[in-house]
Specification:
Blueprint lengths: L5 H12 L15 E6 L10 H7 L2 H10 L3 E3 L1 E4 L4 H9 L4 H19 L4 E7 L3 H16 L3 E11 L4 E3 L4 E2 L2 E2 L7 E10 L5 H6 L8 H11 L1 E12 L10 H4 L1 E6 L10 E4 L13 E3 L6 E6 L11 E4 L5 H9 L12 H7 E7 L4 E2 L1 E2 L9 E4 L3 E4 L29 H4 E3 L6 E4 L3 E2 L1 H4 L3 H4 L12 H7 L4 E5 L6 H15 L11 E4 L1 E3 L16 H8 L1 H10 L8 E3 L2 H17 L3 E2 L6 H15 L3 H16 L4 E2 H11 L4 H10 L16 H4 L3 E8 L2 E9 L4 H10 L1 H7 L4 E7 L3 E6 L1
Parallel strand pairs: 1-2, 1-24, 3-4, 12-14, 24-25, 26-27, 28-29, 30-33
Antiparallel strand pairs: 5-6, 5-9, 7-8, 9-17, 10-11, 10-13, 10-16, 12-15, 13-14, 18-23, 19-20, 19-22, 21-22, 30-31, 32-33
Length: about 750
Amino acid sequence: MKSYNHSAIEKKWQKKWGKNSYKTPDVKKGAENFYLLTEFPYPSGNLHVGHWYAFAVPDILARYLRMNGKNVLYPIGFDAFGLPAENAALQRGLNPRIWTYGNIASMRKQFASMGASFDWSREVVTADPAYYQWTQWLFLKLYERGLVYRKKTNVNWCPKDKTVLANEQVKDEKCERCGTEVEQRKMEQWNIKITDYAERLLTDLDALDCPEEIKTAQRNWIGKSTGAEIKFEIKGASFNKTQGTADVLSEIVVFTTRPDTLFGVSFIALAPSHPLAKEARNLCAINPANNEEVPVFVADYVVDDYGTGAVMGVPAHDERDREFALKNNIPIKNTDFASTEVVEKFSTKKTQYKLHDWVVSRQRYWGVPIPLIKCERCGWNAVPEKDLPVKLPDIKDYVPTGDGKSPLAKVRKWVEVKCPKCGGSAERETDTLDTFVDSSWYFLRYTDPKNKKEFAARKKMSAWLPVDFYSGGAEHTTMHLLYSRFWHKALFDIGLVADKEPYAHRINRGFILGTDGQKMSKSHGNVIDPDEEVKQVGADTVRMYLAFIGPYNETGSYPWDKGGIAGIRRFLERVWRLQEKIGKCEAGSALLHQTIKKVSEDITALKFNTAISALMVLSKAFENEETIAREDFGIFLRMLAPFAPHLAEELWHENKYNGSVHKAPWPAYIEATTQTESVTIVVQINGKMRGAFSAARGVSEADAFARAAGLPEVARWLSQKQIQKRFFVKDKLVSFVAS
């Protein structure tokens, strides 16, 4: 018998499948539509194993659903604009366009080697004018709606990337992309009023089908606080009357969630940017509840963009206030709480949100040009729809300047235009849009990617939306996920989409660790090249290993383990040899039906790891038999197909089953047959399956451990090792932790 040649098999079937094998119709007779979405990749370099985890593992679900009769849309595209791709290009001295599109070409080939069933006919690339024409058009719809405004405000400036960052792109006061300490600058920027939707973004979370961790992260980021505003009169405010600002400086308005602590106020603290901050040492404020005078200070822990930029210091009831009071020798007053009647007399009920408006201006080249024109006479005007897209010009000098202006500002021929309103001299906006604008609607374009007249036809969107299943990274919970929910709600209000939420179900996947123990990413320099792994052990092995390392619907971190990959490879080699045992014998064992049920339930629950374990147990049972019924082997291949599509297809054709295994129906099980008095118990050592045995249902823990330890393959793994812990799951699992 010929050996299992993964390279020849995988190339053979990838060539036969081609790019159009999974072209998905909007309507398929007798089939229910299912939209399976993953966050599309940045083409800032080659794919790494982390990308495989993001795209190859959900393909298991896509293939399983098709075999169960669903019309599955599993699209792919490239989030091609933005800092990651641009920075990578700058490091190599290349034009971002050349670098990005070169990477896209390479990544298409890598995706093909994955064996994922993408619908390539719906590919979108955000840097293509055919796509960003509609990004600009949708942006202008928000502008017309009054949701876009320009304002001089404090912004996060990354001195390395030389651009403004949204608050969501700052982690621990550092740039989320490059890790550089962020500076605060006051600049005029384009903002989108995401805060207008804060309450809806909160309340609509309740009905969403997604893990509680996602809802909690978004609730915390939006940060709703219910409290009160209280006015403290400033004693001696008339000192500034000569500047004509007495009406502004006559009082300080504070926001507090604890107005009942009003009698405990011993100071007022202002944000460093508060209008009164420079005069703070000359001021004192009067507590409206008892007319006591309290000093006014400037404190770094008070921020100007939450509440009013001023707080009442109550050190007896607030830890930060206490720390500030002790440092500045301010009295700590222990008093009774104010009654509801007193509170209502001196306060105004107020609801505040920690969420800030979305700053979308970027002072970089590689992004969507903002389609607005400034005329000295008419002010800001939208680019007329007939002139869209405003194309990003090809320029030689695309290096960011750091002076707060985009490199596009130097392209005078592109900048200088006629005002669309009066026809006079005007200039284009030279900032580009944040890449999260591009990704806020890409899933809509997948439904109608070739449409030249609109961003997507209503009929085509209604065929697929809302997205049935969306898998993404936990790091995007308060960025892309929040932005796209807002964007969709705004389009819903305008009447451009039919649903107020874009996703019916969202999960956060876990992530793969590099050899240094950090999350695998290009920025950490710890990536594993999947091309090399595929060359050595095959795509099916890599796919199955990534599916086997843990439940896909849990946000764990999983180390890259060469030993685990070798174990999966050995399993597939044993599967290859099973075809030698096909012969005439009784079909449809209880174990077979139990496995069909187990694998079906586990794939649906995204527990691909335990589904694979069940297949391993069944294959082990086949190995112990003299012959395997042809019908049973065909059922086994159908269950294997979503996990190892190339090997399953090859064995299906080698043994002359009809058609393609991927178009065969998913096997059904007989419920009564799955209920037997015997069970198969899996044996794990350090989290890896090392054997299995059959036992009577309800076998005792002691007997189960004894049976497990007596298995030759288990005994071999435990030899010369000390058992640290033992775990027992009744009728299912025996697990040893040994070192």
